[in-house]
Specification:
- By secondary structure, the protein is of the alpha/beta class.
- It contains six helices and 15 strands.
- A nine-stranded mixed β-sheet has the order 5-2-6-7-14-13-12-9-10, sandwiched between helices. Strands 1-15 form a two-stranded parallel sheet.
- The radius of gyration is 18 Å and the shape is globular.
- The chain starts with a strand and ends with a strand.
């Protein structure tokens, strides 16, 4: 009998927002930039939109092949014992708690994770790291990437999963005003800006976690290569289980 094949099932996180017009004004809506969905479909995946309406168990997370933590507003500084600053964007504590729980469940289950922008920052905080609160104030040599999507150059570590697909330098689209200040031993920096700001991290001793401080869903072929890193980790995990082969 031929082995069954299927497309990888990838959870992609969404936020919520209050609708401002129309018949449903005042009601909450699930919000997600459709570029994430298009990018995942482009690599042959089946994206499943996950929003903070209900909790997922470890068993349910383990049914996913991968998890993408998407961009969004600033993380609540109260989560890591810091005070709010005037430069902070309005946080969403419910989403913070929901996505942190998803990430930790994925780590326990060995489900590969890709964190994008805010997603990277959430991974760093969940692992015990810390963030710069406002750029370029905290890192004067870093460009002002918090006003609009801005092209920057990432310097990439050659012996990293990211380096294997992008080489040692890549032009990427950044849109953030916070970033990595310190990393815990469980994460290693694999890309940086010439200002010294870390732009990407991978889990040490594991191919299953990649976090990037840019938006590959906006970067065409270069962005597709980043999502292929996630797909490679997913295929590696599938090879060690009895699940149907992935296409």
């Amino acid at each position: 009998m031929a082995q069954r094949t299927r497309r990888p099932l990838i959870g992609v996180t969404a936020g919520t927002a209050t609708m401002m017009s129309g018949a449903w004004v005042g009601h909450d809506a699930v919000t997600l930039n459709t570029a994430y969905v298009r990018a995942l479909r482009a690599i042959g995946a089946r994206p499943v939109v996950i929003s903070p309406q209900d909790e997922w168990t470890d068993e349910e997370i383990a049914e996913l092949d991968g998890l993408v933590l998407t961009g969004g507003t600033d993380l609540d500084p109260a989560t890591w014992g810091a005070d709010a600053l005037p430069t902070d964007l309005t946080p969403d504590p419910a989403r913070d708690a929901f996505e942190t729980a998803l990430y930790r469940a994925a780590r326990r289950a060995g489900v590969p994770v890709l964190g994008i922008c805010r997603g990277l920052q959430l991974i760093v905080l969940a692992e015990g790291g810390d963030l710069h609160r406002h750029l370029p104030l905290d890192v004067p040599a870093h460009p002002a990437t918090g006003e609009r999507p801005t092209t920057v150059e990432a310097r990439i570590v050659p012996d990293s999963d990211l380096g294997l697909v992008l080489g040692t330098r890549a032009r990427v689209t950044a849109f953030h005003h916070q970033g990595v200040r310190s990393l815990p031993p469980s994460l290693r920096p694999v890309a940086s800006h010439e200002s010294g700001l870390v732009l990407a991290v991978e889990a040490t001793g594991s191919p299953a976690v990649l976090g990037i401080q840019w938006h590959p869903e906006l970067d065409g072929d270069a962005g597709r290569a980043v999502f292929e890193v996630l797909l490679t980790a997913i295929r590696h995990r599938a090879e060690t289980t009895e699940a149907p082969a992935l296409v």
